[in-house]
């Protein structure tokens, strides 16, 4: 049995797979989970949830839930960079 869902980030694990389209460099948006021998449904669901979490699907869904103007995206990125640099300065000044 295999479970498929959409994904945006690329990676590869032994217990699940993410596929990358080599021509365009884009991800084929598939997370694949194959049941292991003697694996219960609960264990498979737990593994599937971890795969989805690691692939970044949930994070992207949250980001894309509502339209964000490009200026707002840039503003959020700028503020995030400011916080990061402030944190780094605090750590290096100690």
UniProtKB/TrEMBL annotation:
Compositional bias of kind Basic residues: 75-87
GO BP annotations, alphabetical order: translation
Keywords: Ribonucleoprotein, Ribosomal protein
GO terms for MF: structural constituent of ribosome
InterPro entries: Ribosomal_bS21 (IPR001911), Ribosomal_bS21_sf (IPR038380)
Gene3D superfamilies: Ribosomal protein S8
Source taxon at top rank: Bacteria
GO-annotated cellular components: ribonucleoprotein complex; ribosome
Annotated spans, Disordered: 1-23, 69-94
Family statement: Belongs to the bacterial ribosomal protein bS21 family.
HAMAP family given in the database record: Ribosomal_bS21 (MF_00358)
Protein name: Small ribosomal subunit protein bS21
The species this protein was found in: Posidoniimonas corsicana
Gene: rpsU
């Amino acid at each position: 049995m295999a479970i498929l869902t959409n994904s945006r980030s690329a990676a590869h694990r032994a217990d699940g797979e993410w596929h990358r389209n080599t021509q365009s460099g884009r991800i084929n948006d598939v997370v694949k989970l194959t049941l292991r021998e003697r694996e219960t449904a609960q264990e498979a669901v737990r593994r599937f949830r971890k795969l989805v979490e690691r692939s970044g699907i949930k994070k992207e869904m949250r980001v894309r839930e509502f339209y964000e103007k490009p200026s707002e995206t840039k503003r959020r990125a700028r503020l995030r960079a400011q916080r990061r640099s402030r944190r780094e300065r605090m750590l290096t000044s100690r």
